């Protein structure tokens, strides 16, 4: 039976939003009803059978995810939840960073135990930055470019219904 799934995302520069749309499309192709919405715009999570939550990493912190999980903890706690993060750690290859950020993702949604936690490579486009962000990227030696792996994202999304027991 078709499940109703909410894909809720946080974003500053749009790359996580596009990943959330791609996840939603895969779920729809599998016959489910997937609504894709920015976390800030979500007023209620009633009526959904499962949730996919995505947020980017900025300066070693996951933005907005913890707040969203806390806000809707009762509803999220009683349904399957999958989580994805977006950042440069998967391509920057700084030792331990992927593990550290994956742990941050899981910790952000505690006490929820997600059915799956993924960290996808994101996009850094200096043309989108103001002066302060450019300084932050330089000081952190963040990589520049669009490293989103659409095949990996689609493959992850395709596996979700089974992991969610839908
Ligand atoms: C100022 C700045 C700081 C960042 N810090 C991190 C970081 O600590 N870890 C990481 O993996 N990626 C980091 N990134 C990469 C972002 O997570 C990546 O650009 C992501 O795709 C942004 O998502 P958005 O376009 O949805 O805002 C940083 C990017 C910027 C511009």
Plain-language structure description:
This protein has a single domain (4-163), classed as Rossmann fold (3-Layer(aba) Sandwich). The longest helix is centred in the first third of the chain and has 15 residues, at 15-29. Helix content is 40%, strand content 24%. The radius of gyration is 15 Å and the shape is globular. It has 7 helices and 8 strands. Strand 1 (4-9), helix 1 (15-29) and strand 2 form a beta-alpha-beta unit. With 166 residues, it is an alpha/beta fold. Strands 1, 2, 3, 4, 5 and 6 form a 6-stranded mixed sheet that branches. The protein has a two-stranded antiparallel sheet with strand order 7-8. Helix 1 (15-29) crosses helix 7 (150-163). The model has no long low-confidence stretch (mean pLDDT 95).
List the helices and strands and how they pair.
Layout: E1 4-9, H1 15-29, E2 33-38, E3 50-58, E4 61-62, H2 65-71, H3 73-77, E5 81-87, H4 89-92, H5 97-108, E6 116-121, E7 123-124, H6 131-140, E8 145-146, H7 150-163
Helix pairs in contact: 1-7
Bound molecules: flavin mononucleotide.
Hetero compounds: flavin mononucleotide
Helix/strand order, N-terminal first? EHEEEHHEHHEEHEH
> What percent of residues adopt helix (DSSP H or I)?
40-55%
Class by alpha and beta content:
alpha/beta
Q: What is the CATH C-level name? A: Alpha Beta
Percent of residues in β-strands: 15-25%
Question: What is the total tally of β strands?
Answer: 8
Characterize the largest beta sheet: strand count, sense, and whether it forms a barrel. Answer: 6 strands, mixed
What's the CATH architecture name? 3-Layer(aba) Sandwich
Distance linking N and C termini: 8 Å
> Mean of the pLDDT scores?
95
What is the global morphology?
globular
